[in-house]
Specification:
The protein is mostly helical. The protein has 3 domains: about 80 residues, no CATH class; about 110 residues, Cytochrome Bc1 Complex, Chain D, domain 2 (Orthogonal Bundle), CATH 1.10.760; about 90 residues, Cytochrome Bc1 Complex, Chain D, domain 2 (Orthogonal Bundle). Helices cover about 50% and strands about 5% of the residues. The protein contains 12 helices and 4 strands. The strands form 2 sheets. Strands 1-2 form a two-stranded antiparallel sheet. α8 crosses α9. The chain is elongated, with a radius of gyration of 33 Å.
């Protein structure tokens, strides 16, 4: 079906398409050389001669005319059976999305036995299986590497999956939920409440929590601002809250950078991060194997 915002464009395309076919048939009829009254029997000399070459008004070959008439008939039949006239879905109800879905369903039926043996296996045990790890890596490269990188070490705003630092928890159950349902991380902007100078002091205090260089004279007002605006999510000690997706500010892991300017920007403008749900893309077995592979990245001692 079409994605037109109103019915006009669907009708417009329908009219243009049908008029194009009608015009082609009319042109063939008016240029006929054998249907009804023959307009002429010989090739007329147009009188145009260039470099010894004479231009003729040559008759249209019969086979050519018949071929294009058949093309027009085929086009009308195709447009009746398949979508092509604006919002008209076609007699067969075909859609490319439906074809893709059918192909996916057939593929899932073919590969179902491969995943069946992992269905009841704990994720921590799946992480031990060499075949499962190979499948998990391919699933990651096809579905996750675009954001997290082929080495899973992430980038600015995309978490590193190998360092053991988890915004929403690093247990197999937590990772499974993240992959299945996605996550929506949101740091609210405080620009309407906090002055830039206050945000700068808070940034100095936050840097000090992870042992970074900071202005000692600004730590007291910075802590006062942190206690006022930040502890509700990040906790009194700044260790974060996995239930809220609030990062630990004491471990030296920074998703958007650790400079004062970056931290001030985060405080004043907020941050918005979305991890898309994969349940509509991957089946349950694929998600379990992908979960095991990701979990194994930060638990190398437990994998072979």
């Amino acid at each position: 079906m079409s994605d037109f915002i109103n019915s006009f464009w669907g009708q417009f395309i329908t009219v243009i398409t049908l008029l194009g076919i009608v015009f082609c048939l009319w042109l063939l009829y008016t240029q006929r050389a054998y249907l009804g009254n023959v307009l002429k029997e010989t090739d007329d000399n147009t009188g145009h001669i260039w470099d010894g070459i004479t231009e003729l008004d040559t008759l249209v070959p019969r086979w050519w005319t018949i071929m294009y008439i058949l093309f027009c008939v085929f086009a009308l039949g195709y447009l009746f059976l398949y979508p092509g006239l604006g919002t008209y879905a076609g007699k067969l109800g075909y859609t490319s999305a439906g074809e893709v879905k059918a192909d996916q369903d057939r593929l899932n039926e073919i590969i179902k036995p491969i995943y069946a043996r992992f269905q009841e296996m704990p994720i921590t045990e799946i992480a031990h299986d060499e075949g499962a790890r190979e499948i998990g890596q391919r699933l990651f490269l096809n579905n996750c590497a675009q954001c997290h990188g082929s080495d899973a070490k992430g980038a600015s705003s995309f978490p590193n999956l190998t360092d053991g630092d988890w915004l929403y928890g690093g247990t197999p159950e937590d990772i499974l939920k993240t992959i299945t349902d996605g996550r929506h991380g949101s740091m609210p902007p405080w620009g309407a409440v906090i002055k830039p100078a206050e945000a700068s002091d808070i940034a100095q205090y936050v840097r000090s929590l992870s042992g970074l260089a900071s202005d000692q004279l600004r730590l007291i007002p910075g802590k006062r601002g942190f206690d006022t605006y930040c502890i509700a999510c990040h906790g009194a000690e700044g260790k974060g809250n996995t239930a809220l997706g609030a990062p630990n500010l004491t471990d030296g892991v920074w998703l958007f950078g650790s400079s004062e300017a970056s931290i001030v920007s985060t405080i004043m403008s907020g941050r918005e991060n979305i991890m898309p749900a994969q349940k509509a893309i991957l089946n349950e077995g694929q998600i379990r194997i992908l979960t095991a592979w990701v979990w194994g990245l930060s638990n190398p001692a437990t994998t072979k």
